[in-house]
Amino acid sequence: MNLSKLQSIGWTHYFMQQLSVQLSFEALSAIHDTDAQTVNQYALFRITAIHRDRIQAIGESGSTDLMCPPEFHPTSQYIAVGDWVLTEKAEEHWRIKQIVEPISRLLRLSGEKPQMIASNLNYLWIVTSANQDFNVKRLQRYLTLAFDAGIEPVIILTKSDLCSETQLGEYLVQLTQLNCSLVHAISAHQNTGLTDLAPYLHAGSSIALVGSSGVGKSSLLNALAGTQQHVASVRGDDDKGKHTTTARQLFFINSVDGNPEGQVAVIDTPGMRELQLFNSEHGINETFSDIHTLALNCRFSDCHHAEEPGCKVRQALEAGTIKTSDFENYLKLLREDEYAKRRGLGNHEERKYQRAFSKMVKTMKKENW
Ligand SMILES: Nc1nc2c(ncn2[C@@H]2O[C@H](COP(=O)(O)OP(=O)(O)OP(=O)(O)O)[C@@H](O)[C@H]2O)c(=O)[nH]1
Ligand SMILES: [Zn+2]
């Protein structure tokens, strides 16, 4: 296989290590081999779209539909856009043999069920606009999502042309108080601030955009892609030159690091009206790291930060070193997390995934992979 080609769409040494753990020498040699005999048996693909009846993916020879065997059904519980899969040849088609263990996976609760949003992302662009959409509590929720998934959060304040310099400055001050050091203000309409995003647009990088409907996610992508020559390949499924955000789809824009082959994988998620978290304690503690650190020093380890003596959090609230609104949101998110945990929500997918994974390893061992 031509791994360098795959590297330009996000394949890294990490994924090869994951495969090395599970595959036999023969299968691994096939991946590395450029000899036609074995090359044609196996192929690696990156998932670009999951429809009810088909899975689209991109590999070294371009885009194709993949066959998905029953052990990966329902697909939404096993595979997400951005995942890498090892496939084997099945007559004229490629059949999924194994999902390569992802480096990160973005999940949320949807209708009380875990939903995989995307896999193998480097950056979560949290998009908010410089108008009435601006909402710190919502941003904290998105930050929690990123920290939980182990993805670097980047906050992008859009439509900077819609507000005064002073107002923009005020928004930025509020953003710098969040636990996210990567903050950028842009205007897609006026083409300002876009070059600041170059560090994220390196070859092999993968980015998902999240934010409420109408904050300007698609406009931002169009502005970034619009300066390039290969816009057509970016669109995926729409010949009108407009990216429609109705389904989750991974597409590519050219990298801006001087690598002529370099691509950046981008997932534009439909505006989420509500983002429900689960298994989020880690993310909440990271988002509110100042409160969490104080809470660790409360006299009682199970302190509710209410009336208990020796509560460091209350002391900080009274001294004004932490904000009441942050504390309220911290408690709210913890309550939600607790609720999900009590109802047993959220572990379902992970358990199923793990089960499928170990079953797969066993089968492969039996088949002498
Ligand atoms: N003034 C101004 N308006 C903008 C800018 N970027 C986007 N808009 C407008 O905001 C509206 C929504 O933009 P979209 O890019 O469709 O927003 P979205 O976040 O992709 O929305 P969904 O696809 O529903 O999630 C459109 O009318 C855009 O023209 C900007 O930089 N400045
Ligand atoms: Zn306390």
UniProtKB/TrEMBL annotation:
Read off the PROSITE patterns from this record.
ENGC_GTPASE, G_CP
Q: How is the cofactor bound?
A: Binds 1 zinc ion per subunit.
Pfam families found in the cross-reference section: RsgA_GTPase
Report domain EngC GTPase positions.
Answer: 119-273
Q: Summarize where GTP binds, as residue positions.
A: 158-161, 211-219
Function field:
One of several proteins that assist in the late maturation steps of the functional core of the 30S ribosomal subunit. Helps release RbfA from mature subunits. May play a role in the assembly of ribosomal proteins into the subunit. Circularly permuted GTPase that catalyzes slow GTP hydrolysis, GTPase activity is stimulated by the 30S ribosomal subunit.
Q: Known HAMAP family for this protein?
A: GTPase_RsgA (MF_01820)
- What is the name attached to this protein's record? Small ribosomal subunit biogenesis GTPase RsgA
What organism is the protein native to? Answer: Litoribacillus peritrichatus
